[in-house]
Hints:
- By secondary structure, the chain is an alpha/beta fold.
- Helices cover 47% and strands 12% of the residues.
- Strands 1-2-3-4-5-6-7-8 form an 8-stranded parallel beta barrel, surrounded by 5 helices.
- Helix 7 links the parallel strand 6 and strand 7 (189-192).
- Helix 9 (214-229) packs antiparallel against helix 10.
- The longest helix is centred in the last third of the chain and has 16 residues, at 214-229.
Amino acid sequence: xxxxxxxxxxxxxxxxxxVTPFTADGALDLDGAQRLATHLVDAGNDxxxxxxxxxxxxxxxxxxxxxxxxAVLEAVGDRxxxxxxxxxxxxHHSIELARDAEKTGAHGLLVVTPYYNKPPQEGLxxxxxxxxxxxxxxxxxxDIPGRSGVPIDTETIVRxxxxxxxxxxxDAKGDLGRASWAIxxxxxxxxxxxxxxxxxLLSVGAVGFVSVVGHVVTPELHALVEAYVSGDVQKxxxxxxKLLPVFTGMFRTQGVMTTKAALALQGLPAGxxxxxxxxxxPEETAQLKIDLAAGGVQL
Length: 299
């Protein structure tokens, strides 16, 4: 059974887009995934996104995705919202993944904009609607034009918000003006998908974060959002500014690469990356240590 939620915060406020731990030989590390999920929920995450970009979803099989969701649900499913990433650039495939995630017991779905094939807005609308129609689970859209090549236009978001199961949007568009209008007009629960903009997006109506840096600073993110919603904007700003080196350092290169390096530095399950991702160089690791230390992260 999923933890309680409200229409305003259907998946809680602080979620981490969890990496997928692998063993030394590159196999799925389900024990490591359970230990990492437990660590993240103990740290204060209201939910976890599994099989997203940071989970290396482009290089895991459908069976591995299902096994991973099942393992994480077993470990923390009674304490956190477990959201399964099911987005692909193939509507039929995404429908299959959505149905499988529902069968496995996921609490919700994250559906990214189809990437590479660059469909028009009507194609995006039909894609998201078809996936939302396919399973009886709440859906979070994921708008990230830097990866997908196509933004979800505000008009399309407003149309999609009419669907009873499309309840939220993860915003990695980097445009506070467009976010302002989309939040106001759609009524969707808005989640920051860009850690550097966590606080600014709260200021225009976001309710929480789907974070990468949550792997290392969940308590601080929780304190930030709680300060903001309680009206202590000065405290929220102070936390935001303290975390700037972390926001910067974790995205000097691809986020899953730095995240797995940071977890390894802390002795937490992560393991190697699957090609075409590569481990950080010694120089990049040294810089990451400097960035994390500057943001108060204990290594």
